[in-house]
Amino acid sequence: MSEHVYELLEVTGSSPISSDNAVQIALQKASVSVRNLEWFEVTEVRGHTDDVDILHWQVTLKVGFRVED
Questions:
Q1: How far apart, in whole angstroms, are the C-alpha atoms of residue 11 and residue 30?
Q2: 1 pLDDT higher than 80
Q3: Looking at the domain assignment, is residue 1 inside a domain?
Q4: What is the model's pTM?
Q5: Can you tell me the distance from the alpha carbon of 64 to that of 1, in angstroms, rounded to the nearest whole number?
Q6: For 43, phi and psi rounded to 5 degrees?
Q7: Of the candidates 42, 46, 37, which has an alpha carbon nearest to the alpha carbon of residue 65?
Q8: Residue 39 sits in which domain range?
Q9: pLDDT value at position 59?
Q10: What's the short name of a Pfam family annotated to this entry (predicted)?
């Protein structure tokens, strides 16, 4: 088994579609500038409403990426 070191990055994705879509958007954007993304943890979910309808989702993630040797 290999030994790895990970660093954490915190990002927030937003989407008018769903919380899952907000997660996907956050991971896709983070992967543009950070290599070796390996896991994520949802730390916060919130949204914007107009009393009845959900207008926008925001999901904050801790993203773990492996530090290269």
A1: 8
A2: no
A3: no
A4: 0.87
A5: 19
A6: -105, -20
A7: 37
A8: 6-66
A9: 98
A10: Dodecin
Give the chain's length. 69
For residue 50, give both structure tokens.
Answer: 């107009």
Amino acid at 25: I
CATH number of the domain encompassing residue 36: 3.30.1660.10
Q: φ and ψ at 36, to 5 degrees?
A: 65, 35
Residue 44 lies in a domain: yes
- Number of structural domains, the chain? 1
Residue with tokens 């919130």: 46
Q: Is residue 49, in this structure, part of any structural domain at all? A: yes
Residue type, 65: F
Tokens of 64: 């773990």
pLDDT tens-digit profile of 41-67?
999 999 999 999 999 999 999 999 999
